[in-house]
Amino acid sequence: MPRNASYSGSFDEMPLSVQRAASVPRDWYDQALCRNDNGFVKWAWIAEEKITYKLGTQRIKGHVLHDLALTVCAICPVQWECALGAIQADERAGVWGERVDRLKFIANSPAQAAEARAMGFTVQEAVQRIATGIS
Predict the structure, then answer these.
(1) Which of 55, 83, 88, 107 has its CA at 20 to 30 Å from residue 96's CA atom?
(2) Inside any domain, residue 84
(3) Rounded to a whole number, what is the largest CA-CA distance in the chain?
(4) Measured between alpha carbons, how far is 75 from 19 in angstroms, rounded to an integer?
(5) What is the CA angle 57-70-81, rounded to 5?
(6) Please, are residues 73 and 79 in contact by the beta-carbon 8 Å criterion?
(7) For the chain, how many structural domains are there in total?
(8) How many angstroms separate the CA atoms of 70 and 92, rounded?
(9) How far apart are CA 131 and CA 30, in angstroms?
(10) Closest of 131, 42, 45 to residue 83, by C-alpha
């Protein structure tokens, strides 16, 4: 969980999604490029694609924010840890190295994903290769 998160109830009373997320090791978390932004960009990873956001004086569509997040994820040193953590925690929304709905390709093809990672591909490249059957 992020450091600033707090919860006053017991762990057993938390929603299952929160319990899953809390149980995934995140020793890599502080190295993520998205953790170093304090501006409006921080919304990029959790924006809903079909919603328009008012950020300061600007209106920005969610899909534009997602594209921004994906650009940052592609150069992030812990993108693989992020993607695999999202799969393990069964995240349902957001960008975790790739759009969460596209992480199914990595989850369903762990050997291909491990090979792509070992070859130095980004998470996004690995998803694209697996989705299109490129070996």
Answers:
(1) 55
(2) yes
(3) 48
(4) 29
(5) 125
(6) yes
(7) 1
(8) 17
(9) 30
(10) 45
Average per-residue pLDDT in the chain? 83
Beta carbons within 8 Å of 125's beta carbon, 6+ residues apart: 116
Domain housing 122: 27-132
Residue 15 placed within a domain: no
pTM beyond 0.85: no
SS3 assignment for 98-132: CEHHHCHHHHHCHHHHHHHHHCCCCHHHHHHHHHH
Residue 4 has what pLDDT? Answer: 45
The pLDDT confidence band at residue 30, using thresholds 50, 70 and 90, is: confident
Let me know if residue 19 belongs to a domain: no
Please state, in angstroms and rounded to a whole number, the distance separating the CA atoms of residues 135 and 105: 13
Domain for residue 31, yes or no?
Answer: yes
Cα of 37 vs its chain's centroid, Å: 15
